[in-house]
Prior knowledge:
Order of helices and strands: EEEEEEEEE
Radius of gyration: 13 Å
CATH architecture: Sandwich
Strand content: over 45%
Amino acid sequence: MFIACATFPKGFATGIHNHATQAIIGVWAGHEDNWLYQSVGEGIVSCGTRRVDTGGVLSLGPDAIHNVHSPAAAGAGRYTSTWPTSPRSTATSGSTPEDRQPVSTG
């Protein structure tokens, strides 16, 4: 099991990524917006947004792809717990989420 604690500054974004394992994300201060994606063929498509407020929890399955945004008006304090089973991947940058393609980092 891996547990991380992080503070995201105002306006921060992680970039599109997956954890390649189940992840439990909790917010202990502020809030964050998780832009969710689904793998389709060789690319990804947007499938919604989930806000996690202070005290809230988001559970992601091993196939989940997301991009975490800390709103410009407030930062976020969060923790992530994962059970590593395979390499994490990330997406290349593009002008829109639809332009981004998953690539392996590991």
